[in-house]
C-alpha cells in the first residue's frame, strides 16, 4: 500500500511544473471561425453602404422594329437603309411602299432579299398614315420606331430615342428637332407652322411637346394595343399624339439632328396637310 509521501510524489510528477510552457496545439479551427466572422462583418458594412447609394436604373433589352413608309424615294432609299443597318439596334426593318412610281419598287425588291428587311407593297397610293398602319400590323418587335425614307433624320440618334424606354422612364419618345437647335430647319414658315400645330396639340392634350410633327416617334408596342388609327396622310401625327395622351402614356422628348430638304428635293407635306392637322387636333382630342 502506497504511503502518503509516495502519493504526493506521483501527483507532483503528473502536474506540469510552474512556468513550464504547454505543448503547441494543431487545432486551427478558431482561426477559420475568426476569418468567417470578419468576412460577414465586412459584407454587412458593404450592404449598408449600398443602401445609401441611389439605385441604378435597370436597362431592358429591346427587340426594335424600324417602320419605314416609302413613296418615290429612289434616290435615298438605299442610303437610309444602309444607315439604319450600320447603327444596328433593330431586329427588323419593315418597309411599306405606298405605290411608288419612280423605280423605288425595283430597289425594294432587291433589298427584300436581306434577312433583316421585310417589304410590303400597297396596290395604290394611300398616304403615310396608311403605310404606317400596315407596318405596325406587320411588325414583331417590342418597340416600334418610325423612320422616314429620306435623309432628313439620322439613325445615329436611335440610342437617344431608345434610352428612356430602356430605363423604364417612358412609354413613348418623340425626337425633337427644336430642343437643342431650333434653326436646324432653315424655313421660317415651316418652323412657324410646326410650332403653331404643336402649341394647338399641347392645349388639347395637356402634353408639353416642342415638336409634335416629328417623324421620330418611338412606342412600346403595348401602348398601341387596341388603338384604332384612322388618318391616311400626315394627320397621323396629331391623331396618334392625341390618343396616346388620352391613354395617359408617359411621353418624353429627346433632342435629335435634322437635315431639312426642300420641295424640289422631294418634300411632300404642304399647306393642305397643315389645315388637316388642325382639324385632327380638334377632332381626336374629343372623339375617337
TrEMBL record:
- EC annotation from Swiss-Prot or TrEMBL: 2.4.1.54
Q: Where, if anywhere, are coiled coils annotated?
A: none
Provide ranges: composition bias, Polar residues: 10-29
Please state what class of enzyme this protein is: transferase
MF (Gene Ontology): undecaprenyl-phosphate mannosyltransferase activity
- UniProt entry tagged with the keyword Glycoprotein: no
Region Disordered: which residues?
Answer: 1-29
Record-annotated Glycosyltransferase 2-like domain positions: 65-223
Q: Its domain of life?
A: Bacteria
Which Pfam families does the protein's record reference?
Glycos_transf_2
**Keyword presence, Glycosyltransferase:** yes
Which SUPFAM superfamilies does the record associate with it?
A: Nucleotide-diphospho-sugar transferases
Q: Which UniProt keywords apply?
A: Glycosyltransferase, Transferase
> What PANTHER family would the database entry show?
RFBJ PROTEIN, UNDECAPRENYL-PHOSPHATE 4-DEOXY-4-FORMAMIDO-L-ARABINOSE TRANSFERASE-RELATED
Q: What is this protein called?
A: Undecaprenyl-phosphate mannosyltransferase
Organism, as annotated: Posidoniimonas corsicana
Amino acid at each position: 500500500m502506497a504511503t502518503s509521501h509516495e502519493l504526493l510524489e506521483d501527483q507532483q510528477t503528473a502536474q506540469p511544473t510552474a512556468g513550464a510552457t504547454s505543448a503547441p496545439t494543431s487545432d486551427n479551427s478558431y482561426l477559420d471561425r475568426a476569418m468567417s466572422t470578419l468576412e460577414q462583418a465586412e459584407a454587412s458594412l458593404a450592404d449598408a453602404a449600398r443602401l445609401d447609394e441611389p439605385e441604378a436604373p435597370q436597362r431592358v433589352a429591346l427587340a426594335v422594329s424600324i417602320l419605314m413608309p416609302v413613296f418615290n424615294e429612289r434616290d435615298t432609299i438605299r442610303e437610309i437603309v444602309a444607315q439604319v443597318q450600320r447603327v444596328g439596334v433593330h431586329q427588323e426593318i419593315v418597309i411599306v411602299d405606298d405605290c411608288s412610281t419612280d423605280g423605288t419598287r425595283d430597289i425594294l425588291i432587291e433589298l427584300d432579299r436581306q434577312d433583316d428587311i421585310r417589304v410590303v407593297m400597297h396596290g395604290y397610293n394611300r398616304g403615310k398614315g396608311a403605310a404606317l398602319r400596315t407596318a405596325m400590323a406587320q411588325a414583331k418587335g417590342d418597340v416600334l420606331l418610325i423612320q422616314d425614307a429620306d435623309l432628313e433624320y439620322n439613325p445615329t440618334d436611335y440610342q437617344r430615342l431608345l434610352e428612356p424606354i430602356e430605363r423604364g422612364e417612358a412609354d413613348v419618345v418623340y425626337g425633337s428637332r427644336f430642343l437643342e437647335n431650333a434653326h436646324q430647319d432653315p424655313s421660317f414658315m415651316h418652323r412657324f407652322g410646326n410650332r403653331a400645330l404643336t402649341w394647338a396639340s399641347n392645349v388639347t392634350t395637356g402634353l408639353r411637346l416642342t415638336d409634335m410633327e416629328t417623324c421620330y416617334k418611338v412606342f412600346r408596342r403595348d401602348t398601341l394595343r387596341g388603338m384604332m388609327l384612322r388618318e391616311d396622310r400626315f394627320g397621323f401625327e396629331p391623331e396618334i399624339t392625341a390618343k396616346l395622351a388620352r391613354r395617359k402614356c408617359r411621353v418624353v422628348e429627346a433632342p435629335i439632328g435634322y437635315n431639312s430638304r426642300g420641295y424640289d428635293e422631294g418634300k411632300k407635306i404642304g399647306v393642305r396637310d397643315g389645315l388637316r392637322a388642325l382639324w385632327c387636333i380638334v377632332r381626336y382630342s374629343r372623339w375617337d
